[in-house]
Write a structure and sequence with these properties.
Helix content: 25-40%
Radius of gyration: 14 Å
Order of helices and strands: EEHHEEH
Number of helices: 3
Low-confidence stretches: none
Strand content: 25-35%
Protein name: Anti-sigma-F factor Fin
Structural class: alpha+beta
Number of strands: 4
Strand order of the largest sheet: 2-1-4-3
InterPro entries: Fin
Largest sheet: 4 strands, mixed
Oligomer: single chain
Organism: Parageobacillus caldoxylosilyticus NBRC 107762
């Protein structure tokens, strides 16, 4: 099982955690609401977990252009 982090805006792979055993509390998932979990975390048939996050470039773009927050994806 591996956790793969992808940017929710541009799709860039941000990173991977290859760990046999890891708890959601260690990742901070327990701080998410049920709705946020459903939106951000997806479980793959092979046991991997994909997590939507934000990359540094998209965060910088959002900081410089706050109006972009209204869009689910602003980079196509």
């Amino acid at each position: 099982m591996a956790l793969h982090y992808y940017c929710r805006h541009c799709g860039t792979k941000v990173g991977t955690i290859d760990q046999v055993s890891i708890y959601s509390e260690q990742l901070g998932f327990h701080h998410l609401t049920e709705e946020e979990r459903l939106e951000m975390i997806s479980y793959q048939p092979n046991g991997d977990i994909h997590v939507k996050t934000i990359c540094e470039d998209c965060q910088e773009a959002l900081t410089r252009n706050p109006e972009l927050h209204q869009y689910e994806k602003f980079i196509h």
